[in-house]
Amino acid sequence: GFKGYLFALIAMYAQNKLGKIVGMQPGSDMLEAYTFAKEAMIHIELIDQPIGMTLKRLSKSITWKEKWHFAADIIKGLFGKGIAIDLTKVPDDKVIEQLMGILKEHYPGIYTTLVTERNSYMARKVIKLIESNKGKKIAAIVGAAHVRGTRKIVYDHFGTF
């Protein structure tokens, strides 16, 4: 949908802008992990939800209230009001939780689509991988915002492992 496409354009612009600030292209960390695994002949499974599905769900989940919050936050950002984050490294768990709390409060539809639904999708893929590769080690590489939620779903499924 148009809203999903517009969100993708804004996200792409923001990622490129942040990439220039920190001196690293968006996704280059994932690409490096992928390249390393390929060179080491390690089996690779891409576990994230397809972007088309995510954008389709996102375009349906954004409410007018969230659009207003988004516009207000852009204006605040133009005047330098916001949370100071060192973008040269992955934020610690406390900062990630704070940011996720703000996202969940101000943008519940976006939070559900970008975080909750993707955590569930990725956890289901990890669970299938664990069940079909009994006794083998599996490494799942996910974004920092997805570690806690995805891990909890997997742990809840197996109880303990």
Quick recap:
This protein is an all-alpha fold and 161 residues long.
Low-confidence blocks of residues: none
> Main β-sheet, in a few words?
none
Taking all residues together, what is the mean pLDDT?
A: 84
Q: Count the strands?
A: 0
In DSSP terms (H or I, runs of 4 or more residues), the helix count works out at 7
- Provide the gyration radius in Å: 17 Å
- Quaternary state reads single chain
Anisotropy-based shape: globular
What is the strand content?
A: under 5%
Share of helix, binned? 55-70%
Explain the layout of strands and helices.
Elements: H1 2-22, H2 28-39, H3 51-61, H4 64-78, H5 93-106, H6 108-132, H7 147-158
Fold and architecture overview:
This protein has seven helices and no strands. The chain is an all-alpha fold and 161 residues long. The radius of gyration is 17 Å and the shape is globular. The N and C termini lie far apart (41 Å). The mean pLDDT is 84.
